[in-house]
Each structure stands twice: as structure tokens, then as C-alpha cells.
Amino acid sequence: MKGHTAVITGGGRGIGKAIGESLAGRGVNIVVVDVNLDIARETASGMERLGVKSLPLKADVSNSSDVSGIIDSAVKEFGKIEILVNNAGITRDGLLLRMKEEDWDAVINVNLKGTFLCSKEAVKVMAKQRYGRIINIASIVAFMGNPGQANYSASKAGIVGLTKTIAKEYAGRGITANAVAPGFITTAMTDALSDTVRQEMLKSIPMNKFGTVEDVAASVAFFASPDAGYVTGQVMHVNGGMYM
Ligand code: NDP
């Protein structure tokens, strides 16, 4: 993977940042895409300290002109894109009857439409190269559902269907598409949950511990590598046995 280029959405912090660090440790140049340019810049500096080149870019993945802008900028800087990690994601939780339409739309737009837009733009570049690795970050709730997360679990289940379709459409062009479905991973997103909810979740995890961002990054690194060349349309579950 040395010298490859990876575009990581939501790459400024949390799981996206850990994915960047893991790939940078393997010699991959990193395009850090985030809605917050300051965070993207800070994270990109950290990648450079690992000895690779890194480009911070501000973009909202649900905005098609932002997305074509980041892919253009990445190609301008590095000449190619081998890896796309669709990691940007948000939650706007609420029980179905109380869920506002705008919360439904926001989550579907960032999580699912964002994955669609970024994949569509990146595939144009990857198809010409006849090589590409698309890795989409789904979630355990795509498979189990979760009270209060109708929008989020639908967006993540949509990502699984999208991943398999991209895998079938572009297998002949040397592009693989796979998904990683994390369970409960300690990040800012899950820190927001109450202690009671966290303790309840713990009871349902056979390994009796929450996952780390590095656990997720390791699976992404496998899918991103040339070693995974015959693996496409798959979902890797990283959840301590919570769903199997
Ligand atoms: P964080 O909230 O810690 O990080 C998400 C990142 O995405 C932030 O940097 C955020 O920017 C960025 N982002 C948000 N909206 C957009 C947007 N519209 N365009 C570009 N970037 C955006 O989340 P996690 O690291 O926990 O989650 C990463 C992914 O993993 C998500 O897809 C999430 O759904 C998934 N996941 C997480 C699990 C967990 O337990 N943590 C479990 C299962 C899946 P900003 O900092 O400005 O908000």
C-alpha cells in the first residue's frame, strides 16, 4: 500500500482519524475530509508526522459540489485515489413517533447519500486506474435495529445494500467495495450516551468490553490492502460478539 492515496471522510476525529493513522503507518498518503477544517488540518499534521503526505479538506459529504471538489483536489495533489473510506456519520436519535422529519433527512443525507456521492465521484477515478478499494462504515444496528435509531439504522442498512451493488457493478474494473460494521466503539459519538445505557450495552457484549477505534481501523486496513483483492461485497463485523 506504500504510496497509495486514501480519501477518508469524517477523517478529523474518532474512528476516521484512527483509520487515517493506521493507513499512514502503512505508508498511505491521507486526504482528511471533514466539515471542520481546523480539525482536518490538525489531524493532517499528525499524519505528516507519521512520514506520509496529507491533505486536509473541508467538505459536507451530503453536498454534491463539495464532494466533486474533494475528489478533484485529491487527484490534483496526488494524481490518483486507490482507497476511499466512507466514514462520515451522524446520529439524530428519537423514537419513531417523535422523530422529526428533518432529523430523518439529516441522517440519511450525511450517512447514506454522502456514501453514494463520494463513491460515485471516486469510482470515476478508480475505474480509469482499474484499481480501487471502497470501504464503507456501516454499523451493528443495520443488522439488529435499535430503539430510537430508525433513521440511523435505516441509513446503515442502506449502506450495506449500496456496498454490495458497487461491488457487483465494478468488480470487473478492479474495484472492491466492502463494509465494516462496528458494534459499540468508545468515541465522542458513544460518550454522549448515559452511564445506564452504557452498562446495559456492556451486558450484551460477550467479550464484556467496548471496542476501540483501533479495532475498527484494523479491519478497514485489511479491506484497503492488496491482500484483500479477492474479497468484495462483504461486511466485517467488529463487535466483540454482540451480533453474530
Ligand atoms: P464522530 O462523531 O466521533 O466522528 C465523525 C466525524 O465525521 C467527525 O469528524 C465529524 O465532523 C464528521 N462529519 C460529520 N458530518 C459530516 C459531514 N456532513 N461531512 C463530512 N464530515 C462529517 O463519530 P465516530 O468516529 O464514532 O463514527 C465514525 C463512523 O463510524 C460513523 O459513520 C458512525 O456512524 C460509525 N459507527 C460508530 C460507532 C461507535 O460506536 N462510535 C458504532 C458503529 C458505527 P465534526 O467533528 O465537525 O462533527
Layout of SSEs?
Blueprint: E1 5-9, H1 14-24, E2 29-34, H2 37-49, E3 54-58, H3 64-78, E4 83-86, H4 101-129, E5 132-137, H5 141-144, H6 150-170, E6 175-182, H7 188-191, H8 195-203, H9 213-224, E7 235-238
Parallel strand pairs: 1-2, 1-4, 2-3, 4-5, 5-6, 6-7
Helix pairs in contact: 1-2, 1-9, 3-4, 4-6
NADPH dihydro-nicotinamide-adenine-dinucleotide phosphate binds at residues 9-10, 12-16, 34-36, 39, 59-62, 87-90, 110, 137, 139, 182, 184-185, 187-190.
Rg over CA atoms: 17 Å
**Residues in helix, %:** 40-55%
Uncertain residue segments = none
CATH topology: Rossmann fold
What distance separates the N and C termini? 30 Å
Determine the CATH superfamily: NAD(P)-binding Rossmann-like Domain
What do these coordinates show?
By secondary structure, the chain is of the alpha/beta class. The chain has a single domain, classed as NAD(P)-binding Rossmann-like Domain (Rossmann fold), CATH 3.40.50.720. It is 48% helix and 16% strand. It has nine helices and seven strands, in the order βαβαβαβαβααβαααβ. Strands 3-2-1-4-5-6-7 form a seven-stranded parallel beta sheet, with helices on both faces. Helix 1 crosses helix 9 and helix 4 packs parallel to helix 6. It is globular, with a radius of gyration of 17 Å. The protein binds NADPH dihydro-nicotinamide-adenine-dinucleotide phosphate. NADPH dihydro-nicotinamide-adenine-dinucleotide phosphate binds next to helix 1 and helix 7.
